[in-house]
Amino acid sequence: MNHFQDGDRPSLEEVLENRESRRRRIDRFLADRPETTVVCFKLNIPGPVKNNQWLRKLFREGLGTIEEALDLATKPPVVREIFPDLPTGPEAFLVLDRDTGGVKRDMVTLEDHEVFGRFYDIDVEGGPDSTRSGAVSREDLGLPGRKCFLCDQPAKVCARSRAHAVEDMVQFIEESLAKEGFFKS
C-alpha cells in the first residue's frame, strides 16, 4: 500500500510561492532579532503529494524530536510558529537565542542518527556572526553532505541529475517507515 499517493498535490507555482513566503518569514525574523538563530523544519519527501495524515504524523514526530534535542522545555524559543496543514507540506519555525553553529551541528546529528531523521529537512540560519543570507550548510561546518536515499552518492548530485525515479524514492520511504511500525498507530 502506498500511503503517499493520496493527499495535497500543490502546483509548481504554489511550491515556488511557498518557498518565497518562507524566505520572507525567515528574513523578517532575522531583521527583528538579528542576534538569534532561526530553525526551519520541513519534510524531505519527494513526489507530488506534500501533505496528508501520514506526512503530518511524521512532521509531528520530527518536531517533537527537534524540540527535545534543543531542550526547548527548559529554554523555550523566542518565537515558535507551526503550520501543519499547508498544501505544500507542514512547516515549523523556531527562533532561538542560541549559537547558530551549535544548533546546526545538533540538527545534523538528528538528521543523520534519528530513525526518521533522513526524512527531515532542517535548515538553520542567522546568528550574530552571520555574514550572508541563507542556511548554514553542513559543508560550512566541515561536515559531509547528506547521502542519497538510494545510493551512496551525495543527495544533491542525485537530485540535480534526477538519477532515481520518484516512485523508487517514495517506495524506499514507505518501506523504511513500515519497517519501523510507523503506519500501525
Q: Could you characterize the architecture of this molecule?
A:
The protein has 5 helices and 4 strands, in the order αβαββαβαα. It is α+β, with helices and mostly antiparallel strands and 185 residues long. It has a single domain, classed as ACT-like. Chain A, domain 2 (Alpha-Beta Plaits), CATH 3.30.70.1150. A hairpin with a 7-residue loop joins strand 2 and strand 3 (91-96). The chain is globular and about 45 Å long.
Q: Which terms summarize this structure?
A:
globular; single chain; 5 helices; 185 residues; 4 strands; alpha+beta; 14% strand; Alpha-Beta Plaits; 4-stranded antiparallel β-sheet
Rounded mean pLDDT is 93
Q: How big a fraction of the residues is strand?
A: 5-15%
Could you please say which CATH topology applies here? Alpha-Beta Plaits
Q: What is the ordering of alpha helices and beta strands?
A: HEHEEHEHH
Q: How many structural domains can be distinguished in the coordinates?
A: 1
CATH class bucket: Alpha Beta
* Proportion of helical residues: 25-40%
